[in-house]
Structure formats: structure tokens, C-alpha cells
Amino acid sequence: MSGEHFLGDETPRAAGPTRVLLADDHTLVRAGVRRILEGHDDFQVVGEVADGDAALRALEQSEVDVLVLDLSMSGRDGFGVLREARRRWPKLRVIVLTMHTNSEYIARAVREGAYGYLLKDSAVQDLVSAIRAVTAGQEYFSPPVQQELARMLREPSGPPRGVELLTDREREVLKMVAAGLATKEIAGRLFISTRTVETHRANLMRKLDLHSVAKLTQFAIREGLVEGH
């Protein structure tokens, strides 16, 4: 798979540098993060992958201490990886590295098991400190994320809204609708009937109170669910 590269377990788990796996669908982002980490002797980048399914395969084949994970990737997204990684590798520490600053993304990532949440524009300043913190059993959040977490705690929590209202399957359908796929194409990719796709689309419109494909697409772009936006 393009963008997928990982190494076998060559370092004893009890010794040596912190082993880091990079999961991001942008080659330049992975290259930049690798450069940052390779400037420090206490880190070893054991692999890099371009999508969520590849990240899980790499975790199966390599000993990894810290996963640096983007949330918006093709196929299985970062939330799916977080959920599966927490179940299968409870000692793994995951740091989310993303452009998303909205409260729904932050809250869901923390609930799914992220130990750190960094913004891509602050990776140079924060990433090294974040990895060292999470390997020491602490948590680490970029300053803007800390401010958003504080705001969430100060304000009374209301009912779920926006993306939080959607099931994982509804979120998948929304991404494909926004990408311009027809009902039959979505059904084929998800191995479900066209009627089921239509039901999911109707549920999306009802839950989000958005009653056209154009409005669903605008919502998906605004929430960062569409690649390239």
C-alpha cells in the first residue's frame, strides 16, 4: 500500500528508545514529523502508514510504544483506530495530531483513549514534549486544546449535537455522500443494500436537520470529514 512502511520488532521493549508509529495520509506531514523525531536519540520511528487499517496492521507486526495518529484518514478513521487500539493494546499511548480544534473532536478523542491531542501547526513545538509526557504516564494537550477543554468544563454540557449524534455507520455514509458517491456506489463499498443507504441518508437529514445532499456536504466539509478540506 502506498505510504505504508513499518519495521519488525528489533528493540527489546524494556530498553532502548521510545518506538513511534506515524499514521497520517499526508506524506509531507509524516516526513516532517519523522524529521522532528529523528533529531532526538530517545525516539525511534519504527514505521509510517497512510490509513487506519494499515495502522492496525503495523501495530500487529511491530512493538510500538506511541502512536501519532491523524483523525481524518481514508478508510477507517482515527476514531476507529483509537477504539480498536485501546481494546487490543491497552499499554499503547496514542497522541492525536490533527488540524481539528472543535470540542466534539477533542471530547470524542479523549473518550476513545487519546493521551495527547496536538494541533499540526504546533507539532514542532509540542510533539517531543508530548511523547515524553505520555510515555511517563501523563497526558499532553496543545495550549489551544487546553483552552477548549477548560471551556467545555466551565460550560454546562448540553445534549449531543452535530457529529456526536451520528453512529459510526452514519458517519461513513455521510463521508461518502459528501464525496459525491451515488447510492449504489455507497451500497457496494459498505456491502449493504441501496435501501439501507437511503435509510441512513434519511436519518442523517433528520438528526442534523439538513434536508439536501448539498447541505450534508457543506456540513461534512465544515466538520473535516471530507478528504482535502
Question: Which features would summarize this protein structure in a list?
Answer:
single chain, 229 residues, alpha/beta, Rossmann fold, Arc Repressor Mutant, subunit A, 2 domains, seven-stranded mixed sheet, 10 helices, 14% strand, globular
What is the N-to-C succession of helices and strands? EEHEHEHEHEHEHHHHH
Radius of gyration based on Cα positions: 18 Å
Portion of residues in beta strands equals 5-15%
Helix percent reads 40-55%
Q: Write down how many β-strands occur, each being a DSSP E stretch of 2 or more residues.
A: 7
Question: So what's the CATH class of the largest domain?
Answer: Alpha Beta
Backbone shape: globular
Distance, first to last CA: 23 Å
Largest sheet: 7 strands, mixed
Tally of helical runs: 10
Class by alpha and beta content: alpha/beta
Runs in which pLDDT lies below 50 for 5 or more consecutive residues are: 5-14
State mean pLDDT (0 to 100 scale): 86
Q: Major sheet: order of its strands?
A: 1-3-2-4-5-6-7
The CATH homologous superfamily of the largest domain: Response regulator
What count of domains describes the coordinates? 2
CATH architecture classification name of the largest domain: 3-Layer(aba) Sandwich
Provide the CATH topology of the largest domain.
Answer: Rossmann fold
